[in-house]
Amino acid sequence: MFKAGIIIFFGIHLVPLIGKLRFYLKKELGENFYMSLFSLVSLSGFLLIIFGYESNSNFLYSVNSSAFLYKNYIMFMAFTLLMAAYMPTYIKKTIKHPMSFGIATWAILHLMVNPDISSIILFGSFLVFSVFSVLVSELRKSETDEVNPKITFDILSIALGFLFTFLTFNYHHYFTGVSLG
Fold first, then answer.
1. Would 8 disulfide with which of 28, 45, 144, 169, CB 3.0-4.6 Å?
2. CA–CA dist 181, 176 (Å, integer)
3. Can you tell me the distance from the alpha carbon of 123 to that of 103, in angstroms, rounded to the nearest whole number?
């Protein structure tokens, strides 16, 4: 179930990276149906990942203890980048792919502290996909809208980064079943 979820989740996320396929599907299915189908398939894959994930004690390397020291700062940076990706920010103008860099940062931190095979497959998949999506976007010179940044959105991104970092470190166990203590 876990591996099928990863294949479904990342498989559907490859569709937007293939421009001709994405445009064809939007044209044939209509924008709303395409987006609904994309969301439904993504959610299905995500749920299969969540319910199929089982951490185990087969560690392939030792846990990086320094990651625990800086985890709050690293996650704050990852969440701020994720929030900035959806707003016209100076962060987005400076860092061309804040969503991918935020996910990669999140994945690297999790790889540093979760050395079991299932975690490596899960977080490694997110890292590989993030790097791949940046490379594809750069190679195809994707059609990005010109960002007209406003400092208020940067402040909002930072504030939301703080909020999500706080929520994550106080409620991670409830979201994932994994305690951070």
1. 45
2. 13
3. 9
Distances in Å between the Cα of 27 and the Cα atoms of 15, 30, 141, 143 are 14, 5, 22, 18
SS3 of 85, please? Answer: coil
- Can you tell me the distance from the alpha carbon of 55 to that of 121, in angstroms, rounded to the nearest whole number? 11
Torsion of CA 49, 39, 99, 53, to 10 degrees: 0
Cα 124–Cα 125–Cα 130 angle in degrees, nearest 5: 100
pLDDT digits (tens, 9 = 90+) for 128-155: 999 999 998 888 775 556 778 899 999 9
- How is the chain split into domains, by residue range? 1-53, 58-181
d(CA 67, CA 81): 19
pTM of the model: 0.85
